[in-house]
Amino acid sequence: MNAARIGVITFPGSLDDRDAARAITMAGAEAVPLWHADHDLRDVDAVVLPGGFSYGDYLRAGALARFAPLMTEVIAAAGNGLPVLGICNGFQVLCESHLLPGALLPNAGLHFVCRDQRLRIDDAGTAWTADYSTGQEVVIPVKNADGRYAADRETLAELEGEGRVVARYLDLNPNGSLNDIAGIRNEAGNVVGLMPHPEHAVESLTGPSTDGLGFFTSIVKGLVGA
Ligand SMILES: NC(=O)CC[C@H](N)C(=O)O
Predict the structure, then answer these.
(1) 52 CB under 6 A from ligand 1?
(2) How remote is the CA of residue 32 from the centroid of ligand 1, in Å?
(3) Could you tell me the domains of the chain?
(4) Which EC numbers does the record give (predicted)?
(5) Looking at this predicted complex, what is its ipTM?
């Protein structure tokens, strides 16, 4: 059987594309490099939008990346069920693209926050979290300036009512996110946005844990089993 092919998009200013590719490889899939200026998704089975500062975070984090040529393809493919994971800046791009509701605002303390963060996986029903159990606690780093999840009251009620909060901060809310939200999914469940960085928690030598690998093994197992 051929390995699953998971694309990682590089925008100008992406930082964590190589780490995402490495995590994908560790999980047993082929990491396929994708370039923001192309219109070609190269037949991938899933896509990761990595962390970083796409287009220098000018205007607003993710606001310019949303208009990258490749995002036209990602938006169309996500509508047809392609699994998409946005990590940190990738989450910001997904909100700006309206693939996910709400927005990521400057952190409550107006500082860049970098810490190992305890989280609870609140929805193990997505393609990206199936290898966890709902309620499982993990430690994964956060590092961002614009991580405060915000949405209007109606949207928030909808997310909570439909169980679409994928991960929540425990112990300390590092950025003032509403309801301690660290990650959410779309209605269909194929698009997930996550502020913490699972690709930085895949091996004990460099990360605080290996707890992040589950996001990548989840999708790989789902694709191979599909
Ligand atoms: N690591 C990241 O992706 C964080 C960068 C992000 N644009 C921010 O500072 O909010």
Answers:
(1) yes
(2) 22
(3) 5-225 (3.40.50.880)
(4) 6.3.5.3, 3.5.1.2
(5) 0.92
